[in-house]
């Protein structure tokens, strides 16, 4: 079937309904819209007869609590993950006007999988209720006749209110998934999913449009970015998911194409949290686990935005928002901001700046944090929680990289704490920045997100691959510390490290500074030595050239430099750049491959 795009305003006009001025799409009035996104954890089941669904009464209660909070906070846009909302939730909303959204608000409720006959029966039941209007079901040519029906339906329900002849009605607009997952472990969709052919579009031709693509819809080759671009001046795309591999190139291809073409776009994904399990009802079915959530807000506005400029201008805002467990990154090639979650269950309310408005993408928290709210579920239900006031890096390492915990713990507890800075610091930004500089990365590289959407931070590793990259950096730090302790330095630098000192990142410049410690206080000696470790001499030479150029720009021509690396001739030989002495070799107590798991230092 060929794909169709249907304008919601035209559908409403065809039945005599007033078209709401949805805040999320409006070009007038508020400069931002308020999003509530629920990254839920739970246990689901799946079958080729019904798709994926949640049956726990607790899950139903979670959904109702979130909807009530969305009402209290006057949320403009509410979004759940794919397959998340039981039809009982829709039924309760229909029966109780106190659960209806406010005027001009839009709820996007991806429903649990349902047998096709059950789905049509539910729509018929809803349509018969007073003041309920199921768009498509009541039309002479129902949209749902144009469906490739198999066994079950995967649909999102758009829920909003509009007036018909001064009668306020609750509108339900179902949109069916247009493309099935190709995951061999989740074959129920390819076997039993009924495929729709319609994408509904909110908004006006000359303004912001909003549409939804349900998980694997983004792989549908008939969805053309040019068609999307031509429907409005800019676009908001929602992508609810039940996805164990959300960074797979098949899923990122469409958004990368959109960003590479410099289309002004906001893409909001919403996946399930870890450790969500999806269980097959048949004995031969494999269980599927969500280990990476990667629920993101991709924000493409300025096609000329540079990563370092974005990082410098956004630094304080990033620091404040990351306390809400929403993390910032930047895709350098496509010049796109990315705000992503960790893998835990969390519900956020965010104020997102509209594309046509001047200002930063995510509004910073103010006062009690009204622009960014976060919630979790506890024994008491849905609760708003305080900011992450302090970050315990050692506890993070104990859980995610235990092989390094003992060595880091020892450094944190040494008498003078010369190398304890990252383990005593309580702000993620300062720890990430410190390790960036120690590893020879000067230009805020910990904030960069690769084209494959990988993140390389030191305080947060979301996948096994990211943990492996981080461990290489940790190994380099320990090797560098051992070299400093053993005074494996040129005489010129060795003298500077003879007195008590610490490696420290100072916000007033971009380098690690040399300080003296007096009891519990740090005394600035007015000296700086940029100290780092990189993997090979080629990287060391590039870094040295980069720093020398940067020194002139920031008027730090007298800055001393100590770049440690391995000799290109022998990996066992330590080389210092600038090359004061070519014959400096490793001390006997330097780390070996047996000291650090995954290290590449040979005896």
Percent helix among the residues? 25-40%
Spatial order of the strands forming the largest sheet: 1-12-13-14-15-18-20-19-24
Radius of gyration: 27 Å
Rounded to the nearest angstrom, the distance between the terminal CA atoms is 64 Å
The name CATH uses for the topology of the largest domain is Nitrilase/N-carbamoyl-D-aminoacid amidohydrolase
Provide a quick synopsis of the model:
It contains 15 helices and 29 strands. It has 603 residues and is of the alpha/beta class. It has 2 domains: 4-384, Nitrilase/N-carbamoyl-D-aminoacid amidohydrolase; 393-426 and 461-577, no CATH class.
Tell me what you see in this structure:
By secondary structure, the chain is α/β, with parallel strands linked by helices. The protein has two domains: 4-384, Nitrilase/N-carbamoyl-D-aminoacid amidohydrolase, CATH 3.60.110.10; 393-426 and 461-577, no CATH class. Helix content is 26%, strand content 26%. The protein has a nine-stranded mixed sheet, sandwiched between helices. The model is unreliable at 512-523 and 581-603 (pLDDT under 50).
Which labels suit this protein?
single chain, 603 residues, alpha/beta, Nitrilase/N-carbamoyl-D-aminoacid amidohydrolase, 2 domains, 9-stranded mixed sheet, 26% helix, disordered C terminus, C-N_Hydrolase_sf
């Amino acid at each position: 079937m060929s794909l169709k795009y249907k304008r919601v305003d035209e559908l409403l006009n065809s039945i005599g309904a007033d078209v709401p001025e949805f805040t999320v799409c409006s070009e007038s009035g508020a400069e931002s819209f308020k999003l509530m996104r629920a990254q839920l954890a739970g246990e689901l089941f799946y079958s080729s007869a019904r798709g994926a669904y949640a049956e726990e009464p607790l899950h139903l209660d979670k959904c109702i609590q979130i909807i009530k909070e969305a009402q209290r906070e006057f949320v403009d846009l509410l979004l759940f993950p794919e397959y998340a909302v039981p039809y009982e939730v829709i039924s309760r909303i229909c029966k109780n006007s106190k659960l209806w959204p406010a005027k001009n608000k839009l709820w996007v409720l991806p429903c649990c999988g349902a047998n096709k006959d059950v789905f049509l029966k539910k729509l018929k039941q809803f349509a018969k209720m007073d003041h309920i209007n199921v768009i498509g079901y009541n039309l002479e040519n129902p949209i749902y006749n144009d469906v490739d029906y198999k066994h079950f339906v995967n649909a999102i329900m758009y829920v909003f209110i509009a007036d018909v002849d001064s009668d306020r009605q609750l509108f339900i607009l179902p949109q069916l998934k247009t493309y099935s997952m190709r995951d061999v472990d989740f074959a129920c969709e390819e076997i039993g999913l009924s495929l729709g052919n319609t994408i509904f579009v909110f908004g006006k031709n000359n303004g912001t449009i909003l549409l939804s693509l349900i998980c694997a819809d983004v792989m549908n080759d008939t969805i053309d970015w040019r068609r999307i671009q031509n429907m409005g001046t800019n676009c908001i795309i929602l992508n609810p998911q039940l996805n164990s591999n959300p960074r797979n190139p098949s899923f990122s291809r469409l958004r990368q194409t959109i960003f590479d073409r410099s289309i002004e776009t906001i893409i909001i994904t919403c996946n399930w949290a870890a450790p969500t399990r999806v269980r097959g009802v048949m004995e031969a079915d494999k269980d599927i686990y969500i280990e990476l959530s990667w629920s993101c807000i991709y924000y493409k506005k300025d096609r000329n935005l540079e990563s370092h400029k974005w990082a410098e201008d956004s630094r304080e805002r990033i620091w404040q928002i990351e306390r809400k467990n929403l993390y910032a990154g930047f895709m350098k090639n496509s010049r796109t901001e990315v705000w992503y979650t960790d893998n835990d269950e969390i519900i956020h309310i965010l104020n997102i700046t509209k594309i046509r408005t001047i200002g930063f993408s995510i509004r910073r928290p103010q006062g009690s944090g009204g622009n960014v709210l976060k919630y979790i579920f506890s024994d008491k239900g849905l609760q708003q929680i305080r900011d992450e006031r302090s970050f315990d890096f050692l506890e993070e390492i104990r859980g995610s990289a235990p092989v390094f915990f003992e060595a880091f713990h020892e450094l944190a507890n040494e008498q003078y704490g010369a190398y304890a800075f990252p383990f005593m610091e309580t702000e993620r930004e300062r720890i990430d920045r410190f390790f960036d500089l120690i590893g020879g990365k000067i230009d805020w590289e910990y904030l960069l997100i690769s084209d494959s959407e990988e993140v390389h931070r030191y305080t947060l590793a979301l996948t096994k691959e990211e943990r492996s990259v981080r461990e290489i950096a940790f190994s380099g730090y320990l090797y560098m510390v051992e070299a400093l302790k053993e005074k494996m330095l040129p005489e010129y630098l060795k003298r500077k490290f003879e007195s008590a000192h610490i490696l420290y990142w100072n916000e007033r410049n971009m380098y690690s500074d040399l300080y003296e410690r007096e009891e519990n206080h740090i005394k600035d000696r007015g000296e700086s030595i940029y100290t780092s470790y990189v993997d090979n001499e080629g990287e060391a030479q590039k870094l040295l050239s980069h720093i020398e150029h940067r020194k002139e720009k920031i008027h730090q021509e007298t800055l001393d430099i100590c770049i440690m690396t391995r000799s290109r001739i022998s990996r066992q030989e330590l080389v210092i750049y600038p090359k004061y002495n070519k014959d400096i070799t490793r001390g006997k107590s330097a780390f070996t491959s047996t000291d650090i798991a995954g290290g590449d230092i040979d005896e």
